[in-house]
Structure formats: structure tokens, C-alpha cells
């Protein structure tokens, strides 16, 4: 006698709660293993990563101190001119050329007796200098590329090690992320209908593309504006910046993350439209309010300098209208079958997968 067939093929695809937990445990185990393996690989490149992420701040520090050196060179030339010494006709151009050559002026106090001895000249009469008034001012130039102020500092002995470990973890997460996403997707996809899995195949690449575009814009473009603004502000207060490596590491991770998350705006708009919270007409009618909200969000997600705010706000405005187009032209998928009395052949193609 043939075995009884289930009344509903959906029932045949169901798994017990314990089986779901076992599948979840296996997916998490494989994800953690992939992350550990990626971190081990990241430990090999941690040094290079730490050195690379210092590139933007080194460039900004060099620009800051170059401008400072130009001002100092101009002040020295003007002092020479006031003293009646021979100077170039165009003091500003001369100071700029000296700064372009990386010449950072520095004034030292020297003992005239030792200086004369060093130059092979007759030593002045009298005892060696013992007070500041007896010393003589000597102007020297230091190459900008060897200026210690261009290097990030560490406030504790263990700080560079933790920065190296953090960089290795970030590299490990990036290397293992495709495998982690696959293992999690493998677990989730088993309980989805085919038309639901189709949405993931469409929207996941879009989401990743938007995230990495925002992160790349932050690291390769926005960071320079942020640093130039912050260092300019330091200069206005008469403070020489000496960035800390740990703080910089945190900052260089948070800013791209903020850009990447904010660039998910079109997909968030599509989700809100699909669940009925907003409509395309509402998005179009309230676009001025949306631009205001985007400006406020850009202010909070950036260090509030004009350059980075514009670099985040302007793309988000375009993405907002792109989200409207996505809501308008993205076709809606079919609904999940609701008739549980339908023949098995009508629903077999849309059942969740079962391992």
C-alpha cells in the first residue's frame, strides 16, 4: 500500500527547532573559523596596513607645516629687509620657493666661542657664555621630510601593538567577509521562497556597491578635507597638531563606516515604500524636507567641516532621487502563496529549500 502523501508540501519542508539551531550553530562555527583564518592572514599584512592608513594624515601634516614654514620664511626675509640686508625683490615668491624646497627655519642659541672654534676663527675674548644674553642667535634649516612632527605619536608602550592587532582584525574581516556572508546566506536561504531569494540576489550587490562607494569616497577624498579643516583650526589657535596613532585608527574606521551606511539611503527608501510607510508621491512632495534632513545627518556623521559635509550631503541628495526612481521602476514581486489547499504541483517550485 503506498505511503500517505502530506496534505501540504510545505509541511514536508519544515525543520524542527533543534534542527534549525544545529544549522545556525554550524553556520556560526564556519563564519568564526573563516574570520580567524582571515585574521591570521591579516597579521602578515598588519604592518603595511598601519603604514598605509597613515598616508592621508601625513600628507595633511606636510601641507600644514609647509604653510607654516612659508609664513616663517617670509617673516625672516622681512626682518632681513628691515635690517637693511640684501633680500630678493619678491619676498612672497622667495618664501614660497623655500617652502617648496622643504626648508623649515629654526632659530638656535649658540655660544659664540664654540661657533668661532667650529669655523676655525679666532675665539672671542672672555669666558664661555653662561647666560641667554651672552648667546647668539643662529638660523638653521631643517628638511621638512625629516621633521619629527610628521609622524604620529604613541602615548603608551602597548599602544602600537594594539593598533597593529586592530588593523589585522580589519584586514581579516575584509578577507573573510565573502565567506561569512555566504555561510549566513546559506542558512537563511533555506527558509526563503524563490522569489524572495531573487530579491537578495538583486539588492545585496547594490547594497555592497553603495557601501564600498561611500567608504571609498570618505577615505580617498573626504579625509583630506576633514584633516585640512581640523589642522587649519589648530593653526588658528596657535596649536601644532601631534595626532595619536590610536585615535587616528579609530577615526579612519568610523568616518568611512558613516559614509558607507548613509549611502544605503535608496534601499531604505525602497523598503519603507514597499511596506507602505511612504509612497513615491510622498517622497516627491517632501523633497525639500528630505534635503534638510540629509544636511542635518551629514552634520552629525562628519566632523562638521564644510568640505566633508558637502561631500556626504550632495551625493545623498542624488541618492535620494535615485531612491525615488528605484521605488517607481523596480517591479514588485509576487506575493507568497496563501492558498494552502492548492495542488502540490502548483506550489512545489516556490517552496523553501531543504538540506
- What sort of overall outline do the alpha carbons produce when their principal axes are compared? elongated
State the secondary-structure class: mainly alpha
Please count the beta strands (DSSP E, at least 2 residues each). 2
> How many individual helices?
13
**Range of helix content:** 55-70%
The structural domain count equals 2
Q: Give the DSSP E fraction (strand runs of 2 or more residues).
A: under 5%
Order of strands side by side in the largest beta sheet? 1-2
Gap between N and C termini, in Å?
28 Å
Report mean pLDDT, rounded to a whole number: 81
Unreliable segments of 5+ consecutive residues: 334-349
Please summarize the sheet with the most strands.
2 strands, antiparallel
Rg computed from alpha carbons, rounded to a whole number of angstroms: 32 Å
H/E element sequence:
HHHHEHEHHHHHHHH
Which features does this protein show?
5% strand; 355 residues; mainly alpha; single chain; 2 domains; 2 strands; two-stranded antiparallel sheet
Structure report:
By secondary structure, the protein is mainly alpha-helical. The chain folds into two domains: 15-55 and 153-329, no CATH class; 56-150, no CATH class. Helix content is 67%, strand content 5%. It is built from 13 helices and two strands. The protein has helices spanning 9-12, 17-53, 55-82, 91-100, 112-119, 159-189, 194-236, 245-262, 265-274, 280-285, 287-301, 306-329, 344-347; strands at residues 103-110, 136-143. The chain has a two-stranded antiparallel sheet with strand order 1-2.
